[in-house]
Amino acid sequence: MKISFCIVCMNRLSHLKKTLKRNILDNYLPSEVEFVLLDYNSSDGLSEWVESNMSDFIGKGILSYYHTLEPKAFNRGHSRYMVMRLANGDIVCNLDADNYLGKGFALHILTHFKTQENECFYTSDYSFSDAIGRVCVRKSMFMNVKGYNELLSGYGFEDLEFYNTLRKNGLRQIYISNKSYFRAIRHSHRKRIESESLYINHDSVYISYVNPSFSHYLILNKDNTAIIGGIINNSYNIDYTYKCAICNMTCCVEYQ
To answer: Residue 99: in which H helix or E strand, if any?
Structure first.
């Protein structure tokens, strides 16, 4: 059985310089572990750094490096689907560029998959905010459910939605609580989203107050497109009807 640690990197070279080699040295097992790195059209010198610093690992078959020049902005669902399709392992594990695996994580996961009779997948217990996206699942099941939902855009929720999809398909979610496996490099919220289309293309935001539990928002983009939506404050837990200032229609939001 083999596990593939799948890494997508778009303009996160500063993180990868600290994590990639450390993760390989802490977890490599001959014939049982591979690292797959997808350069998602980075513009920060990632390809040159890989060529200069990781060629030995590539030559030994420990690291596989792929590079695409097509994406103009970062898309979590699409990029993760691409890199996991490229993996050769029976098990695929999403590994964010800012995450440390910790010593022995690969052996820990392989041992559990070898002994589990029922279909399952492994994640953190959600107490490590920067490692919620870490998931280990059989590649066959990942392909069966067609990976992440690529229609979701922006930061967050694509991983939790994917976990929900796996559960709906009969897999049992097993949580790992060992904090030594889920250390991550701390960084700003701006760093999380600065390569995404919403951030790159964003020009200005307008908010229209409706009532204490709801406001409209209008986002104007540099390409002359716009996004409209609503902001809901769930703490009020009320029902209401109002005249929409944007679409001029009667709208309802109902809380159960």
So the answer is: none
